[in-house]
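Morning!

This is the sequence you dropped in the shared folder:
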Amino acid sequence: MIAAPELQAEFHFHQETDTHFSSDTDFEDPDGKNANPGKGKSTKKGKKAPGEKGKGGAGAKGGGAGRINGHHQENGVENMMLFEVVKLGKSAMQSVVDDWIESYKHDRDTALLDLINFFIQCSGCKGVVSGEMFRHMQNSEIIRKMTEEFDEDSGDYPLTIAGPQWKKFKSNFCEFIGVLVRQCQYSIIYDEYMMDTVISLLTGLSDSQVRAFRHTSTLAAMKLMTALVNVALNLSINMDNTQRQYEAERNKIIGKRANDRLELLLQKRKELQENQDEIENMMNAIFKGVFVHRYRDAIAEIRAICIEEIGVWMKMYSDAFLNDSYLKYVGWTMHDKQGEVRLKCLTALQGLYHNRELNTKLELFTSRFKDRIVSMTLDKEYDVAVQAIKLLTLVLQSSDEVLTAEDCESVYHLVYSAHRPVAIAAGEFLFKKLFSHRDAEEEAVSKRRGRQSPNANLIKTTVFFFLESELHEHAAYLVDSMWECASDILKDWECMISLLLDEPLPGEEALTDRQETALIEIMLCTIRQASECHPPVGRGTGKRVLTAKEKKTQLDDRTRMTELFAVALPPLLAKYSVDAEKVTNLLQLPQFFDLEIYTTGRLEKHLESLLRQIGEIVAKHTDTEVLETCSKTYHALCNEEFTIFNRVNIARSQLLDEQVDKFNRLLEDFLQEGDELDEDDAYQVLSTLKRITAFHNAHDLSKWDLFTSTYKLLNTGIENGDMPEQIVIHALQCTHYVILWHLARVSEGSSKKEDMLTLKKQMRAFCLMCQRYLTNVNTAVKEQAFTILCDILMIFSHQIVSGGRDGLEPLVYSPDSSLQSELLSFVLDHVFIDQDDDSNSTDGQQDDEAGKIEALHKRRNLLAAYCKLIIYNVVEMNTGADIFKQYMRYYNDYGDIIKETMSKTRQIDKIQCAKTLILSLQQLFNEVLSDLGYSFDRSSSAFCGIKELARRFSLTFGLDQLKTREAIAMLHKDGIEFAFKEPSPHGEGNPPLNLAFLDILSEFSSKLMRQDKRTVHLYLERFMTFQMALQREDCWLPLISYRNSLQAGGDDDTMSVISGISSRGSTVRSKKAKPATGKRKLAEAEETSSSSDSMWMNREQGMQTPVMMPSPHLTSTVMRDTKRIRPEDTYMGVYALPPEQPQPQQHAHAQPPQQQHHHQTPMDYNTQVTWMLAQRQQEEVRQQQERAAMNYAKLRSNLQHAIRRGTGLMEDDEEPIVEDVMMSSEGRIEDLNEGMDFDTMDIDLPPSKNRRERSELKPDFFDPASIMDESVLGVSMF
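The structure's back. Tokens below.
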């Protein structure tokens, strides 16, 4: 075998169209039965006479067919090649192989050349191996030649191309190799020619650096090896049979022994042994030449192929391959970085462990790699974790002693996984471990029912496991995990009822109270699973369409469940009526009943018993959860579609009548007591109010007119100030339900106008009441009032009229400024607090982790309620500034809520959102000034925190500068005005008090488009004096850094609103630039927008929010003029000054008027042209004088000649070109970045060096590749 030499680079090859056949050639039999669908043959080939070998090894064919360069020809017309036949897959693979074998028998060189070209073309190579190359070149030379002719432009090859045409190519390719070896296994593969040539070729291709060659040849070699293993297995079986026949014949007595037969058997055994040795040599060559190198290939797909096939070999021919010499490769590869490869390892091992006869050969491997398999149950790839659990299940079935208790426990907890396939696999493991072993005694009583059934112990085991796992809130997950493998046990509700109601048998241990609670919870989950037929919340993507069989099973389960529990539920409720947790779970069962069975099954008396038990439970309990469950149960039973509705409705009305009458009577006495409130009376009022509130949640109690009573109660609480906390909370909630039910009736359209007026009056009175309770001393009361108030404002906002409900417009209610202020103050006081400051926790739960989590959850709900008001424009958007400024400090607790709020507000109004963001930064800046004074250290943690917050805000604007252009411009405008708002009390020579804010504002400079940077800079100069521009002290550094951030990337932008006047500098750059690429799209979008003659210049000045326009500028040196420019000369009506109040130049700190941006009449077009031409002439004269004084003549001349030679510019382009090139050093570096062809660098240099050189050219140049880990680029895992 000759391996191809190492190739040092990727290859690009030319396509030879003269020897390539179209894939669209139709392969059909023109002569019906007389033609074989082989490779280009239309007639049967006759035997070749000696010496009939033509050029290229092509012999004469029947019917005049011949071959040229490996292609069939018939009457001068080329037929399809072997590659095309296999790709189309229209012919039976065996007939294709038979035709090739027949061709091989006639002329093996030509046929073998076809096979070689088949492998080359299956790799996607367009080159063809000619007969001359085949005869005179070594394999390494052929591969090198094919590599040179490889077309790698697309990077795709048949094994990776998508589409229906190539979908089955891989399977056809693998089938062809298997059939080829199978059909040649008796003679051709032993001729020491065909197999040696093919193996040598595939070995050489598998060592190529071209991925297509390596991938295709590895797949072919592995499938060839698999076929040879099958041949070796057959030879081994034949040898064993021959040996047995020989032994049997030799053991006969001499008289009956047939010596001729013995000799034949010996000769046959010798031939088989020779063939076996030959096959083993072939397999050894493939294994050592291909597998050993490719199982650790850099490409995961190639590694996966190797591992998949070695698993087939070990399973197929275990005597030869199932040993540690081969198993070690699978064990090592289980540590592969790619999940695809790890998955192949596990599936290969599953095939081995499934056969229990092989367990003894796997003992050493299991002991060595068991820990790795157990750890893979927590693999980050869920598919790998599932297969690891299934493999452990097979290991468990093979031997109970292999896995330790710790190994099993690591799988047990996965039944609570949120990923359903992992949980189901873990549930099957749990079932095999705990439930699959039944002794003979249990089998004998398998027909017993109830408590004596064999499922009783299994149900108890499930309860014990659930309690030991200490995840009591996840019973639904446990049931769902075991539903597919243990549904018979989980749906044995008769046994569960018996365990709860019947007395234990003699010698049987009764269930404890904790176990009974767990059993009831599991029973509820099984009923829900059987009734709904979909996974619990948090596991699965939602409801799926049930099959007909599943629907029938669902109906049968609901029927059986209803028949059982309609009878058993009342006794269960009576037994556990005082236990709130048990009762809560039991009362949920009727929600899953088929209520029609109460009538059809004549179970009305059990319904009466159920209603009676519910009434007693309502009278006994005051727990909110129990009462709400009773309310939901009544709601489920009160279904007008069923005949039981009247009976249930009457019972519900009687229950509510009693409770409302009792409440009114107790309330009247309670309010008359005044200051001397009796605790017993307060408890009676509270318990009754709890029951009414719980029922009002699901039932309309409007006919009892509860608003008057609850409002009177709340009003008394405000006046006296000593109302018990829980009474106020439930009174607020009950009144809220009254309002909502009233709105529901009004929304139906059947109510009168008086009802709407009443609702409006009640709603506004209730809002005022809640606002008054915001100042209550009790935190729980304030939180309840705040939550309800946010809900009311949300419901009755302008959104209420959407969806064609214009009739509800009188109900729209908008909060006034005082209410908005109080709501915001509540959020700041009760949400943005440290965990230790939360005094709402009781019973010493401050140190309890669960209590902290619950308190945080409550605060998150409060913040979310207020943020909804901001998002839906119920309150002013600028109130969000106080929320946004907490983004960094409380990022872990509320970061997701605040970020989503910023995103939604930006979608509503980009400019107003930007104003809100800058306002939040200004508030934080003012806080720093008040805490640290005006001469604070800018390196302090507080100031650095504000800068980091600004950076985070900047990132939220995304990468599309066009979408956020106006918002970013307005943000800079407000920031500049704030920075110069407060002049220094020490005089003009000192910086403004807020000047350090420019350091924060510079974080947003990168979001400005280039032309907008120029405009913002001009606006900044309006507030600057000549002396400010010359200052270099530390106190002026924020101004210097901000100006630099605006000048970076903006000096080379010489676009103008007047076409042809000042665009020549950018024309030079555009001639140098490459065509549009992914990196340049944004920059080109900017230049396109800046070249528009009237984009912002002709915008109407009467817009509500002014936006920045690019001021016309002529050369790249305008921004470096240190001379003070008058505002009216540099500013083109973007932020207009009122003409009657010009800004004096001598007041550097003077603030432009904020309220008169829209009143200045903009310049007309002719005035703009005249102004810009005059400015251009003045700038050119001044710049020429400066260059002459600085002795730039020689440099200028050299640059001119160089540019003329490179671009062929006319003489009149000289001045703008020199201006464009003679920039500051920073400008030149930026220009180098702009004009550099990075695609050329990508070819000449490795990626890491490219990134290094780019960063040296300009440190802040953004390269997307810099965020990638270089260690993952083309690096092998080994």
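Headline: The radius of gyration is 43 Å.

More detail when I'm at my desk.
O.
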